[in-house]
Amino acid sequence: MRPHQTPRWDELSRRKFIEGIGLASAVGGAGIPAIAWADEGDSGPIDCGPPPRAKPHRRTGGESFPPLPLPVTPLRRSEKKRPPSPPALVGKAALGATRWTTRDGKRVQYRDWMTDPADVNALLRWTSDKLGINYRAVEVDFAHFSFDPRELPALLLAGHNKFQLDDEVRAKLARYVLDGGTILGDACCGWSDFTDSFRREMELIFTGRPLRKMLPEEPVFSSYHKLGDLTYKKGDGSTFVEPPCLEGIDFGCRAGVIFSPRDLTCGWDGHEHPRGTRVVIDQARQLGANMITYILGTFQLGRFLSTTKVYHEAAEPTRDDFVFAQLIHEGDWDPDPSAVHNLLKFARDNSTLEVKFKRANVRLNDPKATAYPLLYITGHHDFVWSKEEAASLGRYLKAGGMLLADACCGRLAFDAAMRREIAKALPGGKLERIPADHPLYHCLFDIGRVQYTPRVREDFGQLDAPELEAVTIDGRLAVVYSRFDLGNGWEQFPHAYSYGLQERSAMQLGTNMLVYAVTH
Questions:
Q1: Contact 188/159 with Cβ under 8 angstroms?
Q2: Residue 127 belongs to a domain with what CATH number?
Q3: Is the pLDDT score of 31 beyond 60?
């Protein structure tokens, strides 16, 4: 099976996965008039459909009651039953200035975010029917919100018009995402005013972490429904097909911000308008269901990533002890911040290596990089070495150094970049599979079989042999590359959407690599 294929989940597997993640049950909504008036300089009045439908009445008309001891009074048969409130999953943020308008002869209050008031609840009703899980949405006013993802795992910012947050809210939103929360953004009707504002606000909130186009291989496009190209509909009724439109900001192995510049929320609510550009209704709902599943699947990982491992020997002299050196590059070079710390501890506890709890972060053009016996590189996305960086790495490897490369989560974008850039650093060098009898697999732990994550088994069958590749120089491994993730296993925390090695196998392979680098 091809490496880019997404998992084949049957209905039972999907449901077990979702139920095992840990959040749980139904939906509700508030009847808010569905109209908006653009700020001066914006695009005019926008009406995106009816308010959410009322919650169904649950009455007990034909029921009888068993005798109860006094002083308990039984419910009257006509009284409503109140089922337990399901957990809140998504909060829709109140955006835009408060305004008044006349509708059906009545004065009503509105803000821009109210123009499609039933969107999230409609999506959650749909996912409840399709996935068998139930959650509710709530309205969020930043002035009274705790910004604690344990209270509310996701926030939706949606609308048509320009908006601006103050510095205090920006700082709290940054902390919210770093603590494990997710920000969802949607430009209702594909409105450019909102798109421009959302992108600007994310740039101010997460300086140095720009929104980027999310690739079709990313788990949000396969976490429940397996989506390829999407169909988009214009205001004139014409359609076109293109790859998914989502943009995101990564925090470790998790997208903490997911934004659609083309309308999803109207599709969630099942209506269309003769304006803008939107994802067609069925696919908008499928993508929305994937977003909900993805939030559930990465919530605990986000909470885990909010903590930082301390390298307590970082300030001590290095001398001849082994220190782990990780390469900085233009991609997401540090997606598993706890991985190296845990690997070093495992190596020290299970070998005779004098391992320092120190990670040196270096660039290829830094002369200090050549002082380390091993350099480590990882990431999810594309990266490019300059001509000077590639030449520097080539000299380092030919002089006896070793590069350990690891495709985080098994992403194809990093895989393609790694193969391309190694060819630049070592012209004529070729990554080839390391044979099972190679000393790398036996220099400490005797490794003949390894365990892979469920995603690998689903797409590649019952794979159980190590699949490391290498470039050899004069009989010595100069580059060792794992197309299946090692760092997630080193982190010792579940990564739901990783194509990688299970924890024990990843630790043993990593330790063997350290031993091999030092002894060769």
A1: yes
A2: 3.40.50.12140
A3: no
